């Protein structure tokens, strides 16, 4: 199956802070965006995957410009992202070739995702309809009220922390997006759209190294991980 690889890089990274949008921060001498794009291309060669990079229109002439050539060499097409994750996904899907039967969505802020697990995610999505990388929650979970007081300890059995890539069959994603628009549903992750229409979603165990760069401390952790990172894993 041919895959549309939607690489989301239109967010502003407000929690991280600073003037540079998060996708354009440097990790080991390369931006998060370029590192993520290279791994996606390692996952799906050009004859198997169509790489679509969703970027903010205001970044095209500035942060994106020095990356245009290396990303184009990976076969990337550039599409303007939306104001929300879901809108960016819709824009990317609209730009994808009609022969792409699977749609993979990945955050540029996760540049160290595991290749083998992502391949299994593609396989499971083709089989079941949708799949995501996730890891079992390692921590005790507390439900806290508006006053900062614990209301309950949540049983973490069967509780997983979602990661990307997440993959959906194209027909399911189209139906799920139509449903979301009809009921004004804004998903916080991609496979939630499939869940909302009753689609089965498979979980493939990801990796703790597949961290999302959200705060400055995460970038320092990623730098440390990169020193011993196996690029073929």
Question: Secondary-structure blueprint of this entry?
Answer:
Blueprint: E1 2-9, E2 26-27, E3 30-31, H1 32-43, E4 49-55, H2 68-73, E5 77-80, H3 85-95, E6 100-107, H4 115-128, E7 130-136, E8 141-144, E9 150-154, E10 160-169, H5 170-183, H6 191-195, E11 202-205, H7 216-226
CATH architecture classification = Alpha-Beta Complex
Radius of gyration: 17 Å
Number of strands: 11
Run of helices and strands: EEEHEHEHEHEEEEHHEH
Superfamily (CATH H level) name:
Spore Coat Polysaccharide Biosynthesis Protein SpsA, Chain A
- CATH uppermost class: Alpha Beta
Q: What spatial form do the alpha-carbon principal axes imply?
A: globular
- Helix coverage percent of residues? 25-40%
Question: Major sheet: size, sense and barrel closure?
Answer: 7 strands, mixed
Low-confidence stretches: none
- N/C terminus separation: 22 Å
The number of helical runs is: 7
Query: Into which percentage range does the β-strand content fall?
Result: 25-35%
